[in-house]
Design goal:
8 helices; Immunoglobulin-like; 307 residues; 20 strands
Length: 307
C-alpha cells in the first residue's frame, strides 16, 4: 500500500471521528431532542417547594409514609416529623439533577424497579388542590442516583443526587426521635431514682453536689448534655415493653418547676424510655442511659485522698 493511499485513509478516518464527536456533542446539547428529553420531569421537580405542598405520600413495597404540613412543621403518619430529615428531603428536590431518557420500553420497568408493584410512588398534594406524582425505582448507574418516571409515561430518566436515598428512608428515620428537650441553664436540681434508691444533685451557682457531697463535674456535665436533647435510636411499635430495672430522672428548676421527667427500663444493650403523659415508647442505647442516669459512684466526685 502506497504512502499516498495511507494518507487518504487517515484523512477519511479523521473526518469520521470529527463527525462522530460533533454529533455526540449536538445530541448532549439537545440537538436531536431525544437524548435530553426528560418527559417533563425536570420542570415538575423545579415547580415543587415546601410552601406550595400541603401533603406528601410515599408508598413503597413495604411501607407507606404520609407527611402532612401544618404551619411551619410536618408530621409523619400522625407523629412529629424530624426537621433535619424534612430539610434533607426538600434539599434533595431542589438539588436533583435530571438526566435524559435512558429507556422507553416498558419491558425495562421491572428491571429498573419501576413497575407499578415495585416502585416507590411519591404523591405531592399542592396547596392549590392539585396533585403531582412520580415513580422512583432502583439505584441508578452512578452514586447517588435513581431511576425515575412519571406514572403516565414509559420513559425512564436518571435523577442524580440525594432524592432517591431520601425517598426510600424508613418511617423511623422520618420521625423525630427526641425523648426530652430542655434549657439546662434553668436546671437547679436533678433527682435520680435507681436501684431502689433516690439521689439528689443540686446546683449552687455553677457548682454541683449530690446528696450533700461534691459531685463529679464531668459526670454532671454529661447528665445535663443528655437532658438538653435526649435522643432515641427508634421506637417500640410491637413486642414486649421492658419493665425491669427502672430508672427515673426528674429535672427541676427554681422552686417546684418540673422541667422534664424520663423513665428508663430494661437491662439489655437497647433499653426503653418513656415520658409521663406520652404513649410513645422509645428505644435508647445503654451508653446514653449510663450518661443520663449514672451510678452513684460515678456521680460523686473522686476522693482526693484515694489511690
Amino acid at each position: 500500500m502506497s504512502e499516498k493511499t495511507l494518507k487518504s485513509i487517515f484523512v477519511v478516518l479523521g473526518i469520521l471521528v470529527i463527525v462522530w464527536l460533533g454529533s455526540g456533542l449536538l445530541s448532549r446539547r439537545g440537538g436531536g431532542g431525544a437524548a435530553l428529553d426528560d418527559g417533563g420531569l425536570a420542570s415538575l421537580l423545579e415547580g415543587l417547594d415546601e410552601t406550595g405542598v400541603s401533603q406528601i405520600r410515599i408508598v413503597g413495597p413495604s411501607q407507606t409514609v404520609s407527611l402532612q404540613r401544618s404551619g411551619g412543621s410536618w408530621t409523619v403518619n400522625g407523629n412529629v416529623a424530624d426537621s433535619v430529615t424534612m430539610a434533607r428531603f426538600w434539599r434533595s428536590v431542589v438539588e436533583a439533577e435530571v438526566g435524559g431518557v435512558v429507556a422507553n420500553n416498558p419491558g425495562n420497568h421491572e428491571r429498573m424497579g419501576l413497575s407499578t408493584d415495585s416502585a416507590w410512588t411519591v404523591d405531592f398534594t399542592l396547596t392549590d388542590g392539585g396533585m403531582t406524582s412520580l415513580l422512583v425505582g432502583k439505584t441508578g448507574p452512578v452514586f447517588p442516583s435513581g431511576y425515575v418516571r412519571l406514572p403516565d409515561q414509559d420513559a425512564v430518566v436518571v435523577v442524580s443526587g440525594d432524592f432517591r436515598p431520601t425517598v426510600v428512608l424508613s418511617i423511623t428515620e422520618w420521625r423525630d426521635k427526641t425523648i426530652l428537650r430542655m434549657d439546662t441553664a434553668s436546671v437547679v436540681r436533678v433527682v435520680l431514682e435507681m436501684d431502689e434508691e433516690t439521689h439528689v444533685a443540686e446546683r449552687v451557682d455553677t457548682t454541683w453536689s449530690v446528696d450533700g457531697e461534691p459531685a463529679n463535674a464531668n459526670t454532671m456535665r454529661a447528665v445535663l448534655d443528655e437532658l438538653a436533647h435526649l435522643v432515641a435510636l427508634g421506637f417500640v411499635e410491637d413486642g414486649e415493653i421492658f419493665e425491669e430495672n427502672p430508672r427515673r430522672v426528674v429535672a427541676l428548676g427554681a422552686g417546684t418547676d418540673t422541667l422534664g421527667i424520663v423513665v428508663i427500663t430494661g437491662e439489655a444493650g437497647t433499653r426503653h424510655a418513656r415520658t409521663p403523659g406520652s404513649p410513645t415508647v422509645f428505644e435508647i442505647p445503654s451508653f446514653r442511659v449510663d450518661r443520663v442516669t449514672p451510678d452513684i459512684e460515678v456521680l460523686r466526685a473522686p476522693d482526693p485522698g484515694g489511690a
